Amino acid sequence: MPGTMAVVNIGQLVTLTGPPRPRVGAELQELGLITGAAMLIEDGRIVAAAPYSELLPAIPPHTEVIDAGGKCVTPGFVDAHTHLVFAGNRAAEFEQRIAGATYQQIAAAGGGILRTVTATRAASVDDLLASTRQHRDWMLRSGTTTIEAKSGYGLDRATELRMLQVIARVDAEGPVRLVPTLLAAHTFPPEFAEHRAEYVRWVAEDLIPDVVAAKLARYCDAFCDLHAFTVTECRTVLKSALHHGMRLRIHAEQFRPGSGAALAAELGAATADHLETVTAEALQKLLASAVQPVLLPGSVFALARTNYPPARRMVEIGLAIVIATDFNPGSSPVASMPMILSLACVQMGLSPAEALTAATINAAWSLDLGNSIGSLEPGKEADFVIHEFEDYRELAYFIAAPFRPRVFIAGNEVTI
Ligand code: NIG
Ligand code: FE
Question: FRET label pair with 269: which of 41, 145, 284, 365, CA 20 to 30 Å apart?
Answer without folding.
Answer: 145
